Amino acid sequence: MAFDFQGIATQFVTHYYTTFDTDRKALAGLYRENSMLTFESTQALGTANIAEKLTNLPFQKVKHHFDTADAQPTATGGIVILVTGQLLVDEEANPLKFSQAFQLVQDPQGQWFVFNDIFKLVFG
Fold first, then answer.
1. Where are the transmembrane segments (predicted)?
2. 61-86 burial, b if ≥16 CB within 10 A, otherwise e?
């Protein structure tokens, strides 16, 4: 079955970073109990642990700008997304480069959620 994986990915990425920048706690709804986050090599499994990790990051304000959001369908009907971009934290003047990979899958009700999420700052 063909589906607009790039359109879904673009909508998801826009929603994810808008929510991250305005209300990180609200990101919990995008994950499930079997979801996993790896944030700068630290892993969190499950909705509560992921929400705790994201809400306790060592900054108050953040603004993401994504440059690319490349997507591909998976063999099981999901979507893999690779995002590159920049972010500003708190009052810093110099943006940090980042890459983030997501695997989206659908729950039994057909709602897309983040099954895998890997975030890495890019230095150099």
1. none
2. ebebebeebebebeeeebbbbebebe
> Which architecture does CATH list for 3-119?
Roll (3.10)
Say whether pLDDT at 122 is over 70: yes
Whether 122 contacts 100, CB under 8 Å: no
- pLDDT band at 95; cut points 50, 70, 90: very high
| Cα–Cα distance for residue pair 48/68, rounded to 1 Å | 29
How far, in Å, CA of 101 to CA of 74, rounded? 14
For the stretch 3-57, pLDDT in tens is 899 999 999 999 999 999 999 999 999 999 999 999 999 999 999 999 999 999 9
Is residue 84 a contact partner of residue 98, using CB atoms and an 8 Å limit? yes
